[in-house]
Amino acid sequence: MTSLLGPFPIQVFSDQQSGRYAVASKDIPAGSLVLRGKAFGIATTHTCRKECCSACFNAYTLTSSLPFSCPTCSSVYYCSQSCLQSHSPLHTQYECPRFKELNSIPSSTSAFDKLLASIDKTLESDPRTVSLGAGTTNDLSSLMESCYDRNDIMSMARWILNFCIRVEIECEFGPRPEDDVPSHKDYLELVPNDECLSPAERIQFHGLYHLFAGIKKEKGNMRKPFSQLFQEVFPSVQEFVTVINIRQCNGFGLWDGEAECMGNAVYPAASFFNHSCEKNLERELGMRRVGGDDSGADVGVIVESLDSLQLEESIGSEEERKKREIWKALDLQVGNVLYAKRDIKKGEWLTHSYVDGDLEREIRRKGLKDVYYFDCRCEKCERGE
Ligand SMILES: [Zn+2]
Ligand SMILES: [Zn+2]
Ligand SMILES: [Zn+2]
């Protein structure tokens, strides 16, 4: 996995006490690029899909929705014709038929509640639920219903679909030759903190597993249906729990610059950095909020830059061409770019922050404990600030 770090000034060590951590391999002046990481598992939320491009992940301030979309599944929107075109080999074959199946998750409140109630029933009769010590069946009777609304489930489904497709593409075309492109294996090497899950969370994941594995097949889909792909990638609940937990502990919110989280992504290379409430790395907002008064100008710039990415004249076999198109579509996805916030000395730990470092000490620490399951021992916390 350390090959992901390629030319960047980073060395990774691990020891009993600190686990894995990254240090500067040389003096890094303030403002220098420290990492440009690529995603494995990236998706916009269901709610933000119409204002965030599914190819390049730029976010737009709009009164309605982005100008281009897929009329077949209505699940992806694009900022430009060029994004639509570049993404289409990936979308048409891999995403679109599965999105159509995911759309069968009912949108009327009563039908959706009925679905969750049926999952709750399944959980109650699942022997694993009892063995997890979840208390009485009464506690369980509305477990799924109380935790998830349709938007949550759809957002989770979008991300899971992206993850499964990445695995599928890897199986089909083999790993990519470029060092900096993470693989399924790189993802699974990240820390899941499985042991920190509460019994209730564990059961909810069981519920989500039942739900996704039971998505209805759409007749006439040429491609492997979602439920089958899902169960091939996650043969049992445990594989699913691990992947979701890794996302929980290593995921980056795709913030749009207006404090709205438009989606989620995991950048395996960026997970080498530990947390500190006074980080020395600054993340460049990969996702730009474009639009408002000067939207016209900004969209123009993006179209131009994406046009320069158009495929070269196709050469090689059909299979080769297809592979290059798919990889190209994946390369449009926004990266995780980290810069040195101040001068960093060789050997110093490289850190970024999972929470807003300006928050009060106790609020920061509670957030870190609740979401990432650890007690922060950074210098700022140790000083009591
Ligand atoms: Zn775009
Ligand atoms: Zn579609
Ligand atoms: Zn701290």
UniProtKB/TrEMBL annotation:
The alphabetical list of record keywords is: Metal-binding, Zinc, Zinc-finger
Q: Which InterPro entries match?
A: H3K4_H4K5_MeTrfase (IPR050869), SET_dom (IPR001214), SET_dom_sf (IPR046341), Znf_MYND (IPR002893)
Q: Which PROSITE patterns match?
A: SET (PS50280)
The record, for SUPFAM superfamilies, names:
SET domain
What Gene3D superfamilies does this protein's entry cite? Answer: 1.10.220.160, 6.10.140.2220, SET domain
Q: Which residues form a coiled coil?
A: none
GO cellular component: a single term: nucleus
Q: Which CDD domains match?
A: SET_SMYD (cd20071)
Q: Can you say what this protein is called?
A: SET domain-containing protein
